[in-house]
Design brief:
The complex is a heterodimer of chains A (190) and B (253).
Chain A lengths: L4 H8 L3 H23 L2 H18 L9 H23 L18 H14 L1 H12 L4 H8 L3 H19 L5 H14 L2
Helix pairs in contact in A: 1-2, 2-3, 2-4, 2-6, 3-4, 4-7, 5-8, 6-8, 7-8
Chain B lengths: L4 H13 L8 H9 L6 H19 L1 H24 L18 E2 L14 E2 L4 E2 L1 H10 L2 E4 L9 E7 L9 E7 L6 E5 L6 E4 L3 E4 L4 E4 L7 H12 L23
Antiparallel strand pairs in B: 1-2, 2-3, 4-7, 5-6, 7-8, 9-10
Helix pairs in contact in B: 3-4
Classes of the chains: A mainly alpha (190), B alpha+beta (253).
Chain lengths: 190, 253
């Protein structure tokens, strides 16, 4: 949900209530984006909290309040990648599974499980652009600014992620194709 | 049939929408924002060791001969600062109203006498006796564990809360040899006593962030220790992860 420009300006002016409201509103997006990188609830919460702390410290220096959302997501992504790098030094990354759905959804159980497994199998380098594009509704250029990579690279990763997601959702692939796709993904993995 | 872009968009949005979002802990965010950011360790270390070397040269050999223990202490303190500045979750050390950064210093062992404990700031080093007086002044009594191992350090600091109207923050820094036992008792009600084997931990009144010097505990380990402390139960022994790095600058549009 786009943040109210007036609310951002009030937060920049130092109004505590406005800042708290802004952070409350930004929290779900921040957490979900951090989660899409990390795949772990506790570490995602750590990264999202750290990102909001940075927002709290730096909101006054944001020159273009209309870019607040992209700025926030950039900080969240930065903190999440930082946490991921730190974690990768602790132990090898393991395939994560999405948490169980707490509420009924219109999706069939098989479809939900397929989609969760497919998203988890993508890996953060491809899952994050996909999430920023489809969930946060950012353009390739905006995602590039968030991730610090060229827009063309974003488009390539998006295309690869879409292709991979479709293949994962549509069932097992021939072994030769799987190996080729994995090699492609390995080449562009961040 | 290949899923269209719109179908994928809908599926991804639904999947993300189902990710359970925890309640925002605003006090934790405020505590992180109030804590100084971890510094670039290798630059700090290089700069401080270089500065210590320059001081040593400037002092000259005769003075240096008399000051070797203190100089060694300064150099070690500089290294120590770079280590303890790296804290999990952005939480870091206490900072006094005068702007001094309080850190725990290395134990001072002189001859066959007992090892002392020092509390250091960025500007000065205080003795164990002064540390004990300061700790008492802040409302805490530091009880060194029996048979304090060489290299153990501890400090307890109480400061005003980061935001107006918030309760005082209580910061503890405590390091012992790995697996060393420790006890800190608060003077006055409620006589809270914490015991454990973790090597370092910090509490700010509402949340406890545990670190292990230059090594980091996982979130699960921190949560386990936090739960034990809040329940006034012995803290479980933990093993730490590898050292943490430092993030780069925050980019702004």
């Amino acid at each position: 949900m786009p943040a109210d420009l007036a609310l951002i300006r009030r937060a920049q002016a130092g109004e505590p209530g406005a800042l708290h409201s802004l952070l409350e509103g930004a929290w779900p997006d921040a957490y979900r984006v951090a989660w899409s990188v990390l795949g772990d609830p506790r570490r995602a919460e750590d990264a999202a909290q750290e990102a909001l702390a940075r927002v709290m410290q730096s909101i006054g220096s944001l020159r273009r309040p209309e870019l607040f959302r992209a700025w926030l997501l950039r900080i969240v992504t930065h903190e999440a990648w930082r946490e991921l790098r730190r974690h990768s030094r602790e132990r090898p990354a393991a395939p994560e599974t999405l948490p169980a759905c707490p509420a009924p959804t219109p999706l069939a159980a098989e479809e939900r499980l397929d989609l969760e497994a497919a998203l988890a199998a993508l890996g953060p380098a491809h899952r994050l652009p996909l999430v920023l594009h489809y969930y946060s509704e950012l353009s390739s250029a905006e995602i590039g600014a968030v991730l610090g990579i060229p827009a063309a690279t974003v488009r390539f990763r998006l295309a690869t992620a879409r292709q991979r997601l479709r293949q994962l959702l549509e069932g097992p692939r021939p072994e030769g194709e799987a190996a080729r796709l994995d090699a492609t993904l390995g080449g562009v993995r961040r | 049939m290949m899923a269209s872009d719109d179908v994928l968009r809908g599926q991804v949005r639904r999947a993300m929408g189902r990710v359970p979002v925890p309640t925002l802990d605003l006090s934790a965010v405020q505590a992180r924002a109030a804590a100084p950011r971890a510094r670039r360790p290798h630059l700090t270390r290089t700069w401080m060791v270089g500065a210590a070397a320059m001081v040593a040269l400037a002092l000259g050999a005769p003075v240096l001969a008399r000051s070797v223990p203190d100089l060694y202490h300064v150099v070690i303190s500089a290294l120590h600062l770079t280590v303890v500045a790296r804290e999990p979750g952005g939480q870091t050390l206490a900072q006094s109203a005068q702007g001094f950064r309080y850190t725990i210093g290395p134990a001072r062992c002189k001859g066959a006498g007992p090892c002392g404990i020092s509390i250091e700031t960025s500007a000065r080093t205080v003795s164990l006796a002064q540390a004990e007086r300061d700790a008492a002044g802040w409302g805490f009594r530091v009880i060194p564990p029996a048979g304090l191992p060489t290299g153990a350090h501890l400090v307890a600091i109480r400061e005003p809360g980061p935001m107006p109207g918030q309760p005082n923050q209580v910061w503890f820094q405590l390091r012992t040899a790995s697996g060393g036992q420790f006890t800190i008792q608060e003077i006055g009600p409620p006589h809270v006593v914490w015991q454990g084997t973790v090597t370092t931990w910090v509490q700010d009144g509402t949340q406890i962030v545990i670190s292990n010097g230059n090594r980091v505990l996982t979130a699960a380990q921190r949560n386990a220790i936090r739960s034990a402390m809040l329940a006034r139960q012995p803290v479980p022994a933990v093993s730490a992860g590898p050292a943490r790095g430092r993030a780069g600058p925050i980019a702004r549009p």
